[in-house]
Amino acid sequence: MKSDAVLPDDKKMPLLDHIVELRNRLLWCVAALVIVFLATFLLIAQDIFNFLVQPLADILLKRNPNARMFFGDITEFFFTQVKVAFFFAAFVCAPVILTQIWRFVAPGLYKNERRALLPFLFATPVLFALGAAMVYYILMPMAWEFFLSFEQTGVAAEGTLNIVLDPKVKEYLSLVMLLIFAFGLSFQLPVVLTLLARVGIASSAGLARSRRYAIVLVFVFAAIFTPPDPVSQLALAVPIILLYELSIQLAKITERKRMQREAEAEREAQEAESA
User: CA-to-CA distance for 225 and 172, rounded, in angstroms?
Assistant: First the structure.
């Protein structure tokens, strides 16, 4: 019976072959990114930007049918659409990029390591999409309502001026992408901690003991990467804390499976010695 400790491919590739293989994988990634970027920029970049603006537009147009966004220099909206196309292409191509990375490293992994890592390959883009969806459908409408509540209607008799939002294209996109990436990356917490538990760097008991410190760090992270209002910060902090608790449970499952594998390996070794 062949041991799992033996690599699936007994042939060792020379270093140059590894470099050529890596180059080919990178070329596939770059080609996919360029093709999707060009198609997005030429066909739907403005539609995607309008989709990102929609939560703000829904609020502004209710208050003022003539609400607008503006750009401050002649190239700003062009480069904003370039950024939109690139971010969208990177998201769409993420499965292709992850697949190419997987196909490069998989031949060098043991069979049990491949089985362990493969689910995370699928979980990573799904969790990122969940984080982005939470930003768009939950956080952004609440945050924009909060910030727009600070607008002021001027009264001539009191000598006060109108204070209204006149959003800028570039600044709006930068804020939205920051929120999307902050949530998307934070939703990778179960993947990272479960992998650490699987290789023995972290443990469920250690994660549980560090819970109070993790909660403090989560709120610091939320304060840095969200607008400075309690609603936005709680909207980011609470899901991350729940994901941290989920990571503890996944780490426990991983530890139980590792103990079962070790027990089976020990039993097989004893049976081989007795035979």
Answer: 15
Task: Give pLDDT tens digits for 203-227.
Answer: 888 888 888 998 898 888 888 777 6
| Closest alpha carbon to 85 in 49, 123, 145, 41 | 41
Query: Is 39 within 8 Å of 92 (Cβ atoms)?
Result: no
Dihedral over alpha carbons 140, 141, 143, 146 (to 10 degrees): 170
Q: What would the two tokens of residue 169 be?
A: 């294209």
pLDDT in tens, 3-45: 444 444 445 567 777 788 889 999 999 999 999 999 999 999 9
User: Three-state SS across 174-215?
Assistant: HHHHHHHHHHHHHCCHHHHHHHHHHCCCCCHHHHHHCHHHHH
Joined together, the tokens standing for residue 136 give 């768009």
> Of 5-14, 90-99, 192-201, which range is least confident?
5-14
- In the chain, the amino acid numbered 216 is V
Tokens encoding 220: 């610091």
Residue 206 burial (CB count, 10 A): 13
pTM reported for the whole predicted model: 0.77
Buried b (16+ CB within 10 A) or exposed e, 168-184: ebeebbeebbebbbbbb
User: What is the Cα–Cα distance from 243 to 190, expressed in whole angstroms?
Assistant: 6
Which one, of 189, 247, 250, lies nearest residue 218 by Cα?
189
Residue-wise burial string across 43-74, b where 16 or more C-beta atoms lie within 10 A, e elsewhere: ebbeebbeebbebbbebbeeeeeebebeeeee
